Task: inverse folding
């Protein structure tokens, strides 16, 4: 019997597998069960309470005819593209600079990572004060004599999304930097020695040798950041409440408002299903790249 246990992969690390069973069961019941419930009832005419009155794709047709939803999609695309590009570029540059064994490295790491320890609500309130035209940065600089200085991103319908972007990048870029630094530090020292012997400049070593070797770290960071972008909510609530008007609306806020404030469960679940599909589109290719290729290898 003991020989069978050792030879059968099912019995390997049996204690660890038994200990993980409650977590696995909770994940299946809560996440998978709630996800299926969300998708099923998005095809119903549910209002304040779930109803089994199925209406096909009516909720989705209505969703994509609603200007508020279309604006929220446009906003999340703009926010997502800029957030991904900026956080990855700046995060990697900061990680490469810190990797140069600078003095007070721990202090700089702490300073850059500290904003990530704050909640988005705190970040949103602080940046709302900073960007407020009547009492923030604009008012402070004008009080010094520069009367023509203008920095009112948060007050403009076309610029408010960039105010949210500034706050989001301030909070999240340090986290990307730490992940990138971990990826850089995991690179074999022999590669650096070979690059120095060949006379390859440091920036070329990072760009053409180190970055391709960090594919796993980059993909994992991409999934984490992209999933956070899709569910952006509390920063918007704290800074703008979706205003001016609906110009800074995002999908997560749309879902919350329709499910709880307006009592339109079917419409909120339809929007939530679209968000869930978006997250799956991000995660499935990542899972294939990370695990599918390893199995083939």
Result:
């Amino acid at each position: 019997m003991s020989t069978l246990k050792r030879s059968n992969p099912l019995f390997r690390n049996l204690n660890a597998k038994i200990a993980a069973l409650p977590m696995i069961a909770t994940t299946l019941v809560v996440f998978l069960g709630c996800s299926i419930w969300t998708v099923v009832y998005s095809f119903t005419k549910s209002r304040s309470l779930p109803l089994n009155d199925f209406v096909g794709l009516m909720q989705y047709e209505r969703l994509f005819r609603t200007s508020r939803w279309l604006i929220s999609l446009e906003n999340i695309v703009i926010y997502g593209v800029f957030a991904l590009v900026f956080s990855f570029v700046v995060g990697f540059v900061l990680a490469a600079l810190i990797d140069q064994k600078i003095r007070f490295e721990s202090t700089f790491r702490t300073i850059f990572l500290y904003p990530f320890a704050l909640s988005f609500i705190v970040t949103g309130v602080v940046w709302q004060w900073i960007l407020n035209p009547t009492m923030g940065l604009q008012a402070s600089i004008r009080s010094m004599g520069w009367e023509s200085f203008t920095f009112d991103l948060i007050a403009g319908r076309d610029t408010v999304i960039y105010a949210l972007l500034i706050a989001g990048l301030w909070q999240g870029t340090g986290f990307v930097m730490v992940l990138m630094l971990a990826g850089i530090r995991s690179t074999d020292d022999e590669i650096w020695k070979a690059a120095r012997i060949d006379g390859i400049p440091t920036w070329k070593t990072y760009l053409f040798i180190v970055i391709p070797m960090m594919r796993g770290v980059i993909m994992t960071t991409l999934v984490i950041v992209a999933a956070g972008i899709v569910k952006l909510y509390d920063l918007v609530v704290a800074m703008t409440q979706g205003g001016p008007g609906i110009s800074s609306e995002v999908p997560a806020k749309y879902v919350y408002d329709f499910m709880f404030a307006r009592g339109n469960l079917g419409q909120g679940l339809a929007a939530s299903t679209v968000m869930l599909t978006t997250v799956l589109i991000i995660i499935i290719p990542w899972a294939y790249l990370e695990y599918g290729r390893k199995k083939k290898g």
About this structure: The radius of gyration is 24 Å. The mean pLDDT is 88.
